[in-house]
């Protein structure tokens, strides 16, 4: 939620698979001058490894790997003896782990990311996947059991990789040059590559905003991908490392001969800083993926699919399915950085209600704090007793409150300063240390700060106590917002060690005003006066739209770091010899130093990428203890593998620009792969000033995404949806649709928590054999049945969208129920006036809905249900709804209701123990033939109507219990 950390130059590394003569790190100019001659450097081949001592078992095999020749010591010291373990984990998952035999390399502890144990039965002969290997030089490849001669899913054989080096991606960055090589496994550098089919479809490998879109660039056009894994605090850059690390990808292959597709997936379970490259050499028929890591081990999981959703679910089965969301989390959330006092926040809540724009959760940013200190409230602007009254009033109206928690806590500035969380942390020994045992002290919003050590033995009790005390102070939170947890620091290294703490005061935003024009306004008149922030909510925001607003990609030019020092005599924690492409520069820039020390002896270099995950787990467990009868709700910025078990995510500090509204779609689709489905963007944009048209379109778009929050930065114009009449109208319409669909949202999220299936889907997930869909990232599907086509360009009154299914699927408009006359295999132009977002229903849908969307989710759930059925051409439907109280931690009483239509009869089957008081009041059937009678549970009824033009049968005035089996027939 932050702005403006200064970018610094990051110079390029040249990671070769061959050893270079030891040399000092060159300057920037020397690096650039050396680029043209880099291929003529003296090198020796890395030897690879030889396999021996093979032992077969019921579940797989184990063996030893021994360095096959003289060490090359490319970026560290070659480890002579390795161990390999292969486990057929299930029918669809294969585990391959290569580690140092002495177990001195960092391995992710099971306490942080839990993995399944060895299987109880053998899948060695039945698994979809087969592990193949060459003993010397050692290489392995993964094939499908039923397609042994097809291109392997993963193939490290040098004979399968490009035989000659490819040129660098650009002249100033030779670090992406590639040469085929055997396995390299050193104490500070690991390298392995796999051949892939030419220009295959790759998705994932984040967190990233990729200029190529949701489908990653494989380099067929000479660009390729360099994905760096090093979490950092940065305002949503394009094609650079961001807040989280997720080294998992889904590959989707299309067979042009059979016109059929299949998907597979690969996870490299590693927290190490890394570069992951996707590239295709010139004049080659092979693409490849290459991993370059600065530590750890090679811990691979392979998933057989065969559909994209299957791969995602199989990944979830390994790292853990997403947490169960409380039902209120699907409501509309509102926040900004810059609310000056609790009265202003109270007024915003009142203005939302006066405008009849549903508000489920009000948030506050760091404005809440006293001197920007965690677990406090400002005694002047946010007095505890007034905050408590505010939260109680929200609760009385079935609304909720979420405050922010920053990762760093302030140190006390002198002997008279009282700040209990810091003092208690010292007593409990929960702060990260310097190597000499002193406190590691950085700098964040409150001034000098310390950072929680999530490995500490006392961290859970300390963190729970801090949150419990804060709640008792009057901050009656329903959930927690975790920010700055990469972790972020505004200085480099332990800048506060030995400093005069009182010399550094909290940062101040006083007077900060963003006056730049919104992106698409030619003129911009903004009155900064009391009325803009005051109780009336009035403001002057006038502008003239150019209707020629450009949405070209925002690019950041980054010069990479220079050559490492080659053959180093020992471990370099502060500056590893291979310099990954951390776009902000040195690994310690604006974060913790890599030599910061954690309990148990862990170095920050090895555990950096897991800081956010460990905070999320600790916070989730704390909330479970504080509120044992309620599900936790968390939204966090920095994430890692398995974070979805503990938290949701927002996409960070985006911009109020049309491009970033579009980019949010690929971000949300990525996090479905990562098993963090509760994800969304800062609606209307966080940084810069938004405008009416952009906010109008964005409020509509976000209503059909999992996490729905409007949030903007300090000093920007207010963007609460009531500020513009057109935005207010668009918001009311979109939120009404969202709240109608709550039972559907809740069902697809239950599927995610139970089976790992993604709630939000790229179109090709449902239509995997349609190549025209493989790069589509301007549309998406909510579950299997809802297609969303937003407007993403300014001034537009129409939008082009593709309707999958090749003409065999019937798509109907959500609002009118009319059938779409869609172009087969191409775009269809749809009307999209301002305030309207196109949403369509797929046939074979049975959607349980709330008939009367209300102001809050509680009130909405108090009303009756409706059922919307859209028949296939054959007149059939099958659907499911999952119901429970939406609050209690699982396992809890629940009910599953199934809907089946055959031969003009809808059969409703109910099973489970959850009591459903609300009745099914209306059933709408689309695609039905004109009936002469309608029979409900054996008795003819007359409360029905039929509209021939859209083949719509509406049966109303019902009172069907969803706790019992029922039927409705039309003949």
UniProtKB/TrEMBL annotation:
Record has Hydrolase as a keyword: yes
Secretion signal, residue range per the UniProt entry: 1-19
GO molecular function: carbohydrate binding; hydrolase activity, hydrolyzing O-glycosyl compounds
InterPro entries recorded: Gal_mutarotase_sf_dom (IPR011013), GH (IPR017853), Glyco_hydro_31_AS (IPR030458), Glyco_hydro_31_C (IPR048395), Glyco_hydro_31_CS (IPR030459), Glyco_hydro_31_TIM (IPR000322), Glyco_hydro_b (IPR013780)
The entry's keywords: Glycoprotein, Glycosidase, Hydrolase, Signal
Gene3D superfamilies per the UniProt record, alphabetical: Glycosidases (3.20.20.80), glycosyl hydrolase (family 31) (2.60.40.1760), Golgi alpha-mannosidase II (2.60.40.1180)
Residue ranges constituting the Glycosyl hydrolase family 31 C-terminal domain according to the UniProt record: 756-846
Presence of keyword Metal-binding: no
GO biological process, one term: carbohydrate metabolic process
Family classification: Belongs to the glycosyl hydrolase 31 family.
UniProt-recorded name of the protein: Glycoside hydrolase family 31 protein
Organism: Hydnomerulius pinastri MD-312
């Amino acid at each position: 939620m932050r702005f403006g950390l200064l970018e610094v130059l990051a110079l390029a590394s040249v990671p070769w698979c061959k050893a270079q003569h030891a040399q000092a790190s060159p300057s920037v100019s020397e690096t650039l001058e050396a680029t043209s001659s880099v291929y003529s450097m003296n090198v020796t081949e890395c030897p690879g490894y030889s396999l021996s001592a093979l032992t077969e078992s019921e579940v797989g095999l184990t063996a030893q790997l021994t360095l096959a020749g003289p060490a090359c010591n490319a970026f560290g010291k070659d480890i002579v003896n390795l161990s390999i373990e292969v486990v057929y984990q299930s029918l669809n998952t294969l585990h391959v782990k290569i580690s140092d035999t002495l177990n001195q390399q960092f391995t992710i502890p099971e306490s942080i990311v839990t993995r399944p144990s060895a299987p109880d039965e053998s899948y060695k002969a039945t698994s979809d996947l087969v592990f193949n290997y060459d003993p010397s030089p050692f290489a392995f490849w993964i094939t499908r059991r039923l397609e042994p001669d097809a291109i392997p899913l993963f193939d490290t054989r040098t004979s399968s990789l490009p035989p000659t080096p490819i040129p660098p991606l650009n002249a100033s960055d030779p670090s992406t040059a590639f040469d085929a090589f055997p396995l390299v496994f050193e104490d500070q550098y690991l390298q392995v590559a796999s051949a892939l089919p030419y220009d295959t479809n790759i998705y994932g490998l984040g967190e990233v905003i990729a200029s190529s879109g949701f489908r990653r660039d494989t380099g067929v056009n000479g660009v390729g991908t360099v994905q760096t894994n090093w979490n950092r605090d940065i305002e949503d850059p394009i094609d650079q490392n961001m807040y989280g690390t997720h080294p998992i990808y889904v590959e989707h292959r299309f067979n042009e001969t059979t016109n059929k597709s299949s998907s597979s997936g690969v996870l490299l379970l590693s927290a190490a800083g890394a570069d992951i490259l996707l590239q295709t050499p010139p004049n080659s028929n092979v693409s490849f993926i290459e991993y370059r890591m600065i530590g750890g081990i090679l811990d691979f999981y392979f998933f057989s699919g065969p559909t994209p959703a299957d791969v995602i679910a199989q990944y979830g089965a390994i790292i853990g399915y997403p947490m169960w969301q409380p039902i209120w989390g699907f409501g509309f959330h509102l926040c900004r950085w810059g609310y000056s006092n609790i009265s202003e926040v109270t007024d915003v809540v009142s203005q939302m209600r006066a405008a009849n724009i549903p508000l489920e959760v009000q948030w506050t940013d760091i404005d809440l704090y006293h001197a920007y200190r965690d677990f406090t409230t400002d005694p002047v602007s946010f007095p505890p007793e007034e905050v408590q009254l505010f939260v109680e009033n929200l609760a009385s109206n079935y609304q909720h409150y979420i405050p922010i928690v920053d990762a760093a806590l302030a140190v006390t500035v002198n002997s008279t300063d009282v700040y209990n969380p810091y003092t208690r942390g010292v007593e409990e020994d929960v702060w990260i240390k310097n190597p000499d045992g002193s406190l590691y002290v950085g700098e964040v919003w409150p001034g000098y700060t310390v950072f929680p050590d999530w490995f500490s033995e006392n961290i859970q009790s300390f963190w729970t106590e801090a949150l419990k005390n804060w709640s008792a102070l009057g901050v009656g939170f329903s959930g927690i917002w975790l920010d700055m947890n990469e972790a972020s620091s505004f200085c480099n290294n332990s800048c506060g060690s030995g400093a005069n703490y009182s010399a550094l005061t909290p940062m101040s935003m006083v007077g900060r005003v963003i006056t730049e024009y919104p992106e698409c306004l030619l003129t911009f008149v903004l009155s900064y006066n009391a009325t803009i922030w005051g109780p009336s909510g009035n403001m002057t925001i006038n502008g003239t739209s150019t209707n020629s607003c450009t949405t070209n990609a925002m690019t950041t030019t980054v010069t990479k770091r220079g050559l490492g020092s080659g053959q180093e005599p020992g471990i370099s924690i502060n500056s590893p010899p291979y310099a990954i492409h951390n776009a902000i520069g040195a690994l310690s820039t604006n974060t913790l130093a890599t030599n910061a020390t954690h309990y148990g002896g862990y170095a920050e270099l090895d555990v950096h990428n897991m800081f956010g995950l460990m905070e999320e787990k600790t916070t989730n467990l704390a909330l479970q203890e504080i509120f044992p009868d309620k599900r936790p709700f968390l939204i966090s910025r920095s994430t890692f593998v398995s974070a979805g078990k503990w938290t949701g995510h927002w996409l960070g500090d985006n911009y109020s620009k049309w491009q970033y509204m579009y980019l949010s779609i690929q971000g949300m689709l990525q996090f479905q792969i990562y098993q963090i489905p509760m994800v969304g963007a800062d609606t209307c944009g966080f940084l810069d000033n938004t405008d009416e048209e952009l906010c109008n379109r964005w409020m509509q778009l976000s209503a059909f995404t999992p996490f729905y929050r409007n949030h903007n930065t300090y000093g920007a114009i207010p963007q609460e949806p009531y500020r513009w009449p057109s935005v207010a109208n668009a918001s009311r319409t979109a939120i009404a649709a969202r709240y109608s669909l709550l039972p559907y949202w809740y069902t697809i999220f239950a599927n995610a928590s139970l089976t790992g299936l993604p709630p939000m889907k790229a179109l090709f997930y449902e239509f995997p054999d349609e190549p025209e869909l493989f790069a589509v990232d301007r549309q998406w599907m909510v579950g299997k049945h809802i297609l969303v086509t937003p407007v993403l360009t300014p001034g537009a009154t129409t939008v082009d969208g593709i309707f999958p299914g090749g003409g065999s699927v019937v798509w109907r408009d959500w609002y009118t129920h009319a059938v779409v006359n869609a172009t087969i295999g191409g775009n269809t132009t749809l009307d999209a006036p301002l305030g309207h977002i196109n949403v369509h229903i797929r046939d074979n849908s049975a959607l349980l809905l709330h008939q009367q969307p209300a102001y809050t989710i509680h009130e909405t759930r108090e009303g009756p249900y409706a059922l919307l059925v859209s028949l296939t051409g054959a007149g059939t439907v099958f659907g499911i709804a999952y119901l429970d109280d939406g609050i209690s931690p699982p396992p809890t009483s629940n009910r599953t209701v199934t809907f089946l239509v055959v031969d003009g009869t809808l059969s409703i089957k109910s099973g489970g123990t959850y009591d459903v008081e609300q009745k099914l009041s209306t059933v709408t059937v689309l695609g039905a033939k004109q009936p002469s009678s309608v029979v409900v549970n054996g008795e003819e009824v007359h409360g029905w109507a039929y509209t021939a033009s859209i083949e719509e049968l509406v049966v109303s005035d019902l009172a069907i219990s969803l706790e019992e089996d029922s039927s409705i027939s039309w003949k």
